[in-house]
Amino acid sequence: MLERYCVIGNPIGHSKSPAIHAAFARQTGQAIDYQRCLAPLDAFGATLQQLIADGYRGANVTVPFKLDAAALCTTLSARAQAAGAVNTLLFANGIIGGDNTDGAGLVCDIVRNAGFDIGGKRILLLGAGGAARGAILPLLEQQPRELVIANRSGATAEALVARFAAPGRSLSACQFAELDGPFELVVNATSASLSGAIPPVPAIVFSTSTLALDMMYGNQPTPFMDFASGHGATPRDGLGMLVEQAAEAFALWRGIRPETAMILTTMRASL
Known about the structure:
By secondary structure, the protein is of the alpha/beta class.
């Protein structure tokens, strides 16, 4: 019998996760069934309990439920606890385990796939929601020279700085309009690209030495990517991050980490 997994979100019809995990399963010889699950905006908890009752072994969590998932977990990994957000769930013996593979996937894509060394660089993270929370600790573990968190609400960004502050970390927060630059890595963790918008950041944050990564992806560059490249930056979308975070989740569930290079190429061609 195939062991069952899914990705929970709202909306969810666009998700590439089923195709990615099916490819992982074929590559590694794992017998799994992975589907999409649309959860009502006001019934994430009930949806989770139904999945457990139906015998699911785990799930991925996407917009807008990552904070809800963290609140419902019985146990949290260190990185999920630090982020306060969960994108990977494990169900076993009545326990809901929560992890966050987003940041690990982001860093893996930047370092391995894009060939960009984060260490010693000046980094800008746009946004302060669940996606940004998951990225902060993995980015800091790469020992950048500075990490700035910018958000429409400065208070929300300041709260994240307080959460992750530690001796030896150069971590600060500001509102979008207060930014100076340039930065060597700019990561858009806002949801602006979903609506075709651009975070209101000044062009000065970009230069010809900037890698500008949008966590969103599609068959065309996002408005953020176009804006960044128009000011000299090298743009990158979030497809590599999606594949790498999925590989991390697959390894948690199945005990084996798939090779991602060929799958990333295949997924790129399918957009």
